[in-house]
Amino acid sequence: MTLQPLPPTVQDEGPTTRFVYHILRTADEPLSRREIANATGTPDRSVRNAIQNLIDAGEAERVANPTATRTPLYRLSPAGKE
């Protein structure tokens, strides 16, 4: 497996943010925070901070969850996919 280089906005982030970015990059569909935490083995609080870092950098976005309106889903933004 070859990892693609990180975008400049993510390169200087901490390891959890970079790991969450790679999880979102390889996901076939938007993921909940719990799914991301389970995939990374990282505490929920760390995942929450990492997701917010990615959103602030314009690399990820929050989307509505059609089956559980109180549980948002996350995916890479169009900028994050480039």
Q: What's the domain count?
A: 1
How many DSSP E strands? 3
CATH topology: Arc Repressor Mutant, subunit A
Strand content: 5-15%
**Gyration radius, in Å:** 12 Å
Largest sheet: 3 strands, antiparallel
What topology, given as strand order, has the largest sheet?
1-3-2
The CATH superfamily turns out to be: Winged helix-like DNA-binding domain superfamily/Winged helix DNA-binding domain
Number of helices: 4
Q: Ends: how far apart? A: 19 Å
Order of helices and strands: HHEHHEE
Low-pLDDT runs: none
Mean pLDDT: 91
**Overall geometry:** globular
What is the CATH top level name?
Answer: Mainly Alpha
Helix content: 40-55%
- Would you identify the CATH architecture? Orthogonal Bundle
Keywords: DNA-binding
Region (Disordered): 59-82
GO molecular function: DNA binding
Protein name: Winged helix DNA-binding domain
